[in-house]
Structure formats: C-alpha cells, structure tokens
Amino acid sequence: MNTMDMLDNLSVRVVAEDSVMYESPFWGQHGISLYVTASKDGFVRHILIDVGQSHEALLHNMRLMGIDPASIDAIVLTHCHYDHTQGLAEVLRAIGKTDIPVIAHPDLFRLNFIDKPYLRHVGITSDDAKSNLEKIGAAFFLTADPLQLMPGLATTGYIQRQTDFEEVGIPLKTIDTQNHLVQDPMNDDISVIGAVKGKGIVILSGCSHAGIVNITKHAIAMSGISEVTSIIGGLHLVEAPMERIAKTVDALDSLVVGSIYAGHCTGFNAQVELRKKFGTRFMPLQTGNYFEYP
Ligand SMILES: [Fe+2]
Ligand SMILES: [Fe+2]
C-alpha cells in the first residue's frame, strides 16, 4: 500500500473553541476553528479548518494571536453546522483575496434541522449561501473524496461507517429529493489528516459526527500510517450514553499512540473518561492552545 507523503512540520492554533485558556484574553464561542500551518520542502501553507459561528470572536482572537487573515490559503469546512460555518462570508472578506479554495462535502448546503424542542435550522445560514460566498472570493471544492491540500496534508472525504456503536449524536433531519422528512446521516462530516515526518498522523476533526473511531480507522487506512500521534477537535459525545463513551475510549486506546485534545461537543463525561484512560495524554481543548509536530 502507498503511504501518504510526510510534512516536515505541522502546527495547530485553536482560534475558536467553547472554552478559553486560563487567564487568556481570548473570546470563547460555541464552535471550533483551527489555524493550521503545514510545511514541506520549504513550501508553507496556512489552512483554516472551520470558522466557528462568531466571526467577531474569531477575528478578535486571530488579531491577539498575531495571525493575519490574509495569510489563509484555503478553508476546510468539516460539515454544515452553523457553529462551524456561520460568518464564513465575513471571514472571506477579512482574508480579502479571490479564488480562495473552500473544501467541503457536496451535501454541505442541504437543509439540516432539529425539531425538538422546536423547529430550527442548524445548517449553513442564508448569509453564507454558496452564490454569496463565491462573489466574495470562495472557490468551492465540493467532493466526497479525499483531497490533497499539499503532500502530507489532506481531507478525508466521506467516512465509511464501520463501528456498531457510533452514530451522529443528535436527531438531525433533512428533506430528501422526494420531499420526505428523513434522518440526516451527516454524510458531509469530514476531517483533515496531517502526516508528519518522524511522528505519524494528526487527525483534525470538527464534530466527529461520523464517529471518532470510524474517522481514526479511515485516517489510518487512507494514509497507510498506523501511528496516530494526535487527535484534535470535537468528538460529539456530549449526549452519548456512558456505554458508547466507554467503547469509544477503549477503541481509541487501542488505536491512538499519542495524545487527544478534545473539546467543543465532546462533553464532560467523555472528557473525564478520556482523562482516566490517557492521563495527561488527554487535555480538554481550549481557545489559545498551540500544538506543534514534530
Ligand atoms: Fe459543532
Ligand atoms: Fe456538528
């Protein structure tokens, strides 16, 4: 099997997250956004994974962190939810360039909603409609396949469901082409994989609606690299029963050789169980965190 190319260096700065680091001046928000810097053979690329839901908080944090939005070369949207995509138009304006690659699954712009406790759309908002975004610089790459951002850094594409204990985590619905209400399986949930020389793969997820164990298995198979150095992102176990959390933690323990930094929709119960299993190799994710590989 071919193995994925390796980056010389990968760094991840958490620019949006539900919580903030102790004594930090950053603003929290319900959402996630990761500013990724990848380098290989002298080429450097800056990728923004998701944009949270508040561009004010995102751009405030980036300013304090000394990150110029104009440095962003491409944006990956892990799935349609508003807490990952809202304000993309404002972020594109702040980047201020044309032809900015925006990578996502082709189902991104569908209707996606909950009806409890009341009817509410939770997908892409109308301000971030595709045609709007294209007018302000977005060049969409909507694909169900893995897409290489540079050698050593790629999106996963659609995640095959393999485990029998993972599911979307929220009763989401959509309307199908026959106009019927159906459960939404969140087929658009994608992640980003970075392979780093001398380390292994780093998995960057938004909400892991596809299931973090499914995502990790997919990442190992896709990269041909079995050393999972880190998982960073949201695991969406916030409403999961303890049984699913236990199975997830056990499965990750057998797959992950390094660390897990999980927050956003991971939930306190899952964070506690991960800490018990991984010790200090697990940390709750917070706005302001900085990770560097190798
Ligand atoms: Fe989320
Ligand atoms: Fe989500």
UniProtKB/TrEMBL annotation:
Matches recorded under InterPro entries? DHPS-like_MBL-fold (IPR041712), Metallo-B-lactamas (IPR001279), Metallo-beta-lactamase_dom (IPR052926), RibonucZ/Hydroxyglut_hydro (IPR036866)
Any one GO molecular-function label of the UniProt entry:
transferase activity
Domain called Metallo-beta-lactamase: residue spans:
46-123
Record the organism: uncultured spirochete
**Which Pfam families does the entry mention?**
Lactamase_B
Q: Mind telling me what this protein is named?
A: Putative Metallo-beta-lactamase domain protein
